[in-house]
Amino acid sequence: MKAHSSKVGVFVRIRPTANFSKDLIECLPDGQTVNIHHKKDSRRPQDSRKSQLSSFRLEGVLQDVSQGELYARVCQRVVLGALDGYNGTLMCFGQTGAGKTYTMTGSTESYKQRGIIPRALQEVFQEVENRTEHAFSVYLSYLEIYNETLVDLLSSLQGSPHPSPRGMVVSEEPGRGVFIRGLSIHPVHSEEEALNLLFEGEMNRIIESHALNRNSSRSHCIFTVHIESRSRTLSDAKYITSKLNLVDLAGSERLGKTGSEGRMFKEAMYINKSLSFLEQAILALADRRRDHVTFRQTKLTHALKDSLGGNCNTVLVANIYGEAAQIEETLSTLRFASRMMCVRTSPAVNQHMDPAAQIKKLKRDVQMLKGELSICNTLVNRPNIPYESSKAQQAEIHSQVQRYLEGSLEEISIISIRQVHAVFAQFKLAVQEQEQKVKAWLCQTYNLVEIDQCAKTADIKEWDTRGSTEDVSAQPLKNAHRPSSIKGKTKRFKAKESQSRRGGEGSPVSWKGLESASKSKLSSVQIPKREQESQEPDTESQDTQESESQDTQESQPPGNEPFHPDLLSLPSSTLTKAEAFEDFKVGRGSKLNRILKENKAVLLERRSLLQQLTEEVNAVKREMDCTAATIQQHKETRGGQGQYLVMEGEPDATSLKQLSDLKALYRQRYEVLRDIKAEINYCQHLVDQCRVRLLSEFDNWYKKSFLVPEEELERSMDKTLEQEDNQLPYELLPENSSSESFYNARYRTLKRRDRALSFTPVQGNSSSGSGQRRLPPILPIS
Ligand SMILES: Nc1ncnc2c1ncn2[C@@H]1O[C@H](COP(=O)(O)OP(=O)(O)OP(=O)(O)O)[C@@H](O)[C@H]1O
């Protein structure tokens, strides 16, 4: 939709104070102008006594306004715009302690003092209910930028994706704009659900205490409401989306005033630096002669790129103090605010096409074009060309390709593009069939099993034998006492090893033997048939232990972390991951493990064959070189100028014959060597596949069996919560029923926090090694 140019809306909010400096700060009756009387330049002694007036005219000066009034004047139109498909951004900027968080989030203890975000959420869900002609979907995300690190404040919620090892990044894509890759986005269906997420995120924010603010936010936070809306009445393909960014910036601070030291000093440096880049970006945006603005210097400016000069309705609230002591910072906040007034944005509805409806339309277009094509063909007298592919035509093309491959058809005549595609498809099919045949032949010859196939069989058998009454989660612990199946397996290895020893591991393989082994596809390689194994008697052997320990080393699971089953009401013994892997190999993963071993045995056999063969080939080569050298020597002693003639029966004639035989032999053996190398590559591929599959199945099994208490815990917690909620102290709630969601969400959050505290000691943000997270004192709801 066409964008129109719009100014950024800028408001000033003055934090209430008993010491309001009327001499220095003058709010004019127009409600839009604030005059600041200040010293000319306090840093220059000659100017320090001179007074100067700086006047700022903004969209509104808000002094002693309630939270409700502020929302109505500043935010409401942006929220309603977001429901109509316009992106919106609301940003609080100002000195530390000036009231940004109070404006944006407000008090989480008092419904009346709730800030912009809870009010915006209430408005969104009220509108969703009222606008019955549209179906809305609402999603939330909550991002924190702390010391140039992106943190997902909602990552602690159930269902959040596991954080990517590479962390989150600010990305840009055409058509999608700026977004945070890796940030979790949560669907919400009610105001209460949304508030739950807000309060959860609030608990995770980083706060510190300093001289100007007891609960100072040490980071920038962006709470985003993603809205999607589709018409319920119109069946067209269009739908609209929008993003509402509610930004609480960290406060700028003079280090002398806040007394920040150590980590807080470092935080303050990051905050001031990113705010100064933000100011630079605003300056550049406000200057219409500049055609390039650099947003990428900091995460904050990059993440806000779309919101500052993009296609959205943007509003800034500049929070200032009313006291004389902060007048310099107040002045610089107002300067920033007035620059922001010069920035223009181009709000536009984000309209998209529904792919399903678009497909329908395209189908209609194709039908129409086909009709036109057929008319054109008739007009130029072209024979009736088929543009649809019927089964008969496909069969015809198939037969043409087959005949072409066999040589009975010289060429395939081309009649349409569709037919060319069909011909290529047939060629591809022929190649694939050939590949399958070769693969099947190799598997059959070497008794190797495709990993997918064997895993499927293993799964089915596992399922069959487990039975319906068995407790799956208890399985690994049962397996901790190695089941008897391991014994059967140990016997197999013993048999295999003795067999391979009998097969001549100690005795050299003759050339003939090698050749025939390769040509007859190694009939001498003995691998036990899988069906026979289960019938073998149970016995333990030293051989097996060696074989197993060797295998364990090769297929070690990643990590060796101990886990604590007692936390999960499991028996109190503690297994390491390596021990669990051992159990897995004899239990659930026994089939895979066995196949891995068998394939490895074949691979080893092949390798030793290759080694012997290489030696043989090298020996032949040496012999060839030797014979050639002898012939050369004779040639030279005869003064060998010109042609070298040898009479039959002479010793040189024998040498030449011998050399030619050796060459033939060399070529022949070299070919066998090459074949064996190819076989080894194939075997290696199967062994690798087996190993990866074994490890990944183990990982899944391990996670399912031991390491996912959180989800279970969360589920059980939610149940408990529901029960507890039924006993919610409603007598404490105010009579206003619209506050119910707010207090419910608050109550749930406090409960969750209590439980979290009772489970783990309170720590800072593990990802950033920062200060405390915002954990407000538990107060009675009143
Ligand atoms: N308009 C207001 N009415 C009542 N109390 C306010 C108002 N503005 C701020 N306060 C109070 O002032 C204190 C500091 O406010 P707040 O934490 O919102 O500041 P901030 O600008 O977010 O600071 P920082 O940048 O350090 O996080 C809080 O106790 C808050 O309740």
From TrEMBL:
This protein's record includes keyword Transmembrane: no
Record keywords: ATP-binding, Cell projection, Cilium, Coiled coil, Cytoplasm, Cytoskeleton, Flagellum, Microtubule, Motor protein, Nucleotide-binding, Phosphoprotein
Region Disordered, residue ranges: 464-570, 758-782
Self-association and partners: Interacts with HYDIN.
Biased composition (Polar residues): 517-526
Protein name: Kinesin-like protein
GO molecular function, one term: microtubule binding
